[in-house]
Amino acid sequence: MRRMAHWQALMRPVVSAFCLVLVLVPAAVGQQAVEVLTLRDQPQPVATGGGFVLAGEKVSGRLVSLTKAGVTVEGKEGRFPLVPTGQVLDIRFPLTERVSKPAKPVAAWVRMVDGSRIGCRAVVATPRQVKLQTQHLGEMAVPAARISAVRFGKAERGVVDSWRDLLVREIKRDRLVILKGKTLDYLDGVVGEINDKQVNFLLDGDEIPVPLERVYGIIFFRKATSQAVSPKVCQAALRGGDTFGLTAVSVEGKTCQGVLAGGAKVSLPVAQLERLDFAASRIIYLSAMTPRDVEHVPYFDVTWKYRRDRNLDGGPLKVGGQRFARGLALHSKTRLVYSLAARHRRFQAWMGIDALVGRRGNVHVVISADGKTLLETDVKGTDKPRLVDLDVTGRRQLQILVDFGGDLDIADHLDLAEARLIR
C-alpha cells in the first residue's frame, strides 16, 4: 500500500500536467481573438484604443476566416452568422500574447506614394528600381516612382516633427535631408543610387557621395499621375508600426495573405496584425475633405474658425464624456458646404456641445442637401448627444449651418464627432 501511495503521489503532477495540456489544446488551434466593428444596425459610439468611433453591431470572438465573402467569427455560444465584407468597418486584433521583437532593428522607414509606411532592414535603390528588405513582408522590388520618401534617422521628439513638416512641403527636385545636431537641414538636387554605405547625390551638376550615417532622410520629387490603380479593400496596420493598403486580403488559420496596391503578394502571421481597417473603402470623413464654401459670421468681434479632428480650443473632441479622434468643431454662426457628386448614401455624426464648455452652449443646427432641409434642431449643452443619420442618396451638395441659439454665442462649441459620408 505504501508503494501504491508513493506511486500515486509521483504520478499526480504528471496527470495534472497531462490534463492541463488537454485543456489548452483548443486554444492552440490558431484562431486569433478579434473584434469586428460593423455597419449593421444603428451606429452608436464604440470604445477603441484610439477613442470612440461610430459603429453598429460589434462581433467579438475567435477569427475563423476572412474571405472575399466576409468574416466568420466563433464566440462562446458557437459561430456567429457570416458578416458580409460590405458590412465590415474594422477588424481589430487585441494583443493576447507577447510578440517577439525582431532580431534586427528597422534601419529605414519607407513611405510609398499611396501613403503606405513600411519598416525595412535595408534599402538599395537605382533611379528606376528600389529593393527593400522589409521587416515583416520579406524582400520586395518596386518601381522607384512608387517611393515618396525614406527616413533613415530615428524618430526623436522635435526632429521627427520637422521631418513631417518637410514631407508636406511642395518641392521641385529631390530633397536630401541632413541632421545637424538637433536640427534638420536639406539640399535640393537629384538622388542617384542608394546602397548600405552612401547616397549618390547630384548637386549643381556635381555628383557627391554622401555617407549614409549623415543622411536623416530623402524626399523624392514625384509628378502627380492619373495612372489607374486597383482600389484598396482595406488598410492594414501591424504592431511594429507598418501601415499599407491591400487590394485583396484573406485570413486562414494563423496566416494573413494580401495583395499590395502595386500587385505584390504578401504573407504574414496574423499575430503581427493590429487592425484591418475597411472604412477607407466605404467611408470618407468630412475632416479629410475640403469644403467648397466656408462662411463664418461672428456675433461680436471674435472669430472662431471651424476645426478638423480637434475641438475649438485645440483639444480632443469630447461629446458626452466620450473622446473622438475624428470630426468637426463649429462655432455659431458657421456654414460649411461640401460637394457630394451623388456618390454617397448616408451622412452620419455624433452631435453635441463639446464637454469642455460644460452645460453651456445653445445653437440652432440646419443640415440640408441640394436645398432640401434634412435636419433642423436646437442643440444645448444640457442635451444628451444624439445620432445624426441622414439619407443623402443622389445628392450633390451637403450644407451644414450652425446658427446662433437663444443665448447670444456664449459657449456655442458644437461637435460633429465622426462626421462622415457612407458610400
Summarize it.
This protein is mainly beta. It has helices at 2-24, 159-167; strands at residues 32-38, 44-48, 51-55, 58-66, 70-75, 78-79, 83-84, 88-92, 108-112, 117-125, 129-134, 139-143, 147-151, 174-180, 183-194, 198-203, 206-211, 215-219, 234-238, 243-252, 255-260, 265-269, 273-277, 283-285, 293-296, 307-308, 317-319, 322-324, 327-331, 334-339, 346-353, 362-369, 372-380, 386-391, 397-404, 413-422.
Distance between the termini: 77 Å
**Ranges with pLDDT <50 over ≥5 residues?**
1-29
| Spatial strand sequence of the major β-sheet | 12-11-10-9-13-18-14-15-16-17
Q: How many helical elements?
A: 2
Strand content: over 45%
Helix-strand makeup class:
mainly beta
What is the number of strand segments? 36
- Helicity range: under 10%
How does the overall form come out from the CA principal axes? globular
Characterize the main sheet.
Answer: 10 strands, antiparallel
- Average of per-residue pLDDT values: 88
